[in-house]
From TrEMBL:
GO MF: ATP binding; ATP hydrolysis activity
Protein family: Belongs to the ABC transporter superfamily.
Occurrences of domain ABC transporter (ranges): 4-232
Record keywords, A-Z: ATP-binding, Nodulation, Nucleotide-binding, Transport
Top-level taxon: Bacteria
UniProt KW Nucleotide-binding keyword: yes
Organism of origin: Chitinophaga tropicalis
This protein's name: ATP-binding cassette domain-containing protein
Keyword Nucleotide-binding: yes
SUPFAM superfamilies: P-loop containing nucleoside triphosphate hydrolases
InterPro entries membership: AAA+_ATPase, ABC_transporter-like_ATP-bd, ABC_transporter-like_CS, ABC_transporter_ATP-binding, DrrA1/2-like_C, P-loop_NTPase
């Protein structure tokens, strides 16, 4: 079952198309990565999915029916990149206020807050003002405030910003637990290693258009370059490794990284070394990272863009 279906969505501003005929689905319980360089249209997409903006064209289905911003908004938790905590307000009072905005009664809200504050070990922060907290501490309060009402759809925009490795891991485990319990998560970030580790599916947008979408594992397969890492039982000399079956990309001692030639297969590689009585101790394919796919696809649609600016 798909929790979200986006159909031919379009949003125009005065000078450009922010979202240009984009369609995709988000299966229930999945962790869905929304990727793209700055200005690609990600924020506009998120604001339409949450009902902040209305599309100029197309529709959004929520649980199989048209999204209703008045009734469905309570089923969504949204943590934007620009955090929305009140700096002068005390942490406990703010969490209680935000929980009640999401429809929780005061008694239930206090119970939820106690549970999450205990779990995140932040009960001592109750009477602190938000401005007294570090950016990472504020991030934890924001995350708790976003998930307290058990949303069906959780939207996280750069959720690890300002967090140290320990607290990043804490939030990451909560994301996995929420997904296992049926919460659907849209995860937007510029850190591709997090996408690869966390997301089941992704969509890549650039200049308002969808570049690709699908399962992370399948995308890595689709963009593989037939590169292999080979461990040998002894360091070969040049005559032993030279062959038309593959190109040597890198050699480090007895380990080779090679690219398979067109018309050749992996058996040809193995037979080559067997012919020289060189034992092969390890052999595996190197798939491209999501970061490599991201850069390649964005550069194809925007040749002037350099990787360092993404």
């Amino acid at each position: 079952m798909n929790l979200i279906e986006v159909k031919n969505l379009r949003k125009d501003y005065a000078t450009h198309k922010a979202v240009d005929d984009i369609s995709f689905v988000i299966p229930q319980g999945s962790i869905f990565g929304l990727l793209g360089p700055n200005g690609a249209g990600k924020t506009t997409l998120l604001r339409m999915i949450t009902g902040i903006f209305y599309p100029d064209q197309g529709e959004i289905l929520f649980k199989g029916r048209p999204f209703d911003s008045h009734t469905d908004i309570h089923a969504i938790g949204y943590m934007p990149e620009e955090r929305g905590l009140y700096k002068k307000m005390k942490v406990g009072e703010q969490a209680l206020y935000l929980a009640q905005l999401k429809g929780l009664k005061e008694k239930e809200a206090r119970e939820k807050i106690k549970y999450w504050f205990d779990k995140f070990e932040i009960n001592s922060w109750w009477n602190k003002k938000v401005e007294e907290l570090s950016k990472g501490m504020q991030q934890k309060v924001q995350f708790i405030s976003t998930i307290m009402h058990n949303p069906d759809l959780l939207i996280l925009d750069e959720p690890f910003s300002g967090l140290d490795p320990i607290n990043s891991n804490l939030i990451k485990q909560e994301i996995f637990d929420l997904s296992r319990n049926g919460t659907t998560i849209i995860f937007s970030t510029h850190r591709m290693e997090q996408v690869e580790e966390i997301c089941d599916r992704i969509i890549l947008v650039n200049k308002g258009q969808k570049i690709l979408d699908g399962e992370v594992k399948q995308i890595k397969q689709d963009f593989k370059q037939h590169v292999f890492r080979i461990g040998l039982g002894q360091q070969p000399n040049f005559a032993q490794v030279a062959t038309h079956h593959f190109q040597i990309i890198k050699q480090q001692g007895a380990d080779l990284t090679v690219k398979l030639a067109d018309g050749s297969n992996t058996n040809d590689i193995l037979k080559h070394f067997i012919g020289y009585n060189i034992p092969v101790t390890s052999f595996h394919e190197i798939l491209p990272s999501i970061n490599e796919v991201f850069i390649q696809q964005v550069q194809q649609t925007e040749p002037a863009l350099q990787p360092a600016t993404i």
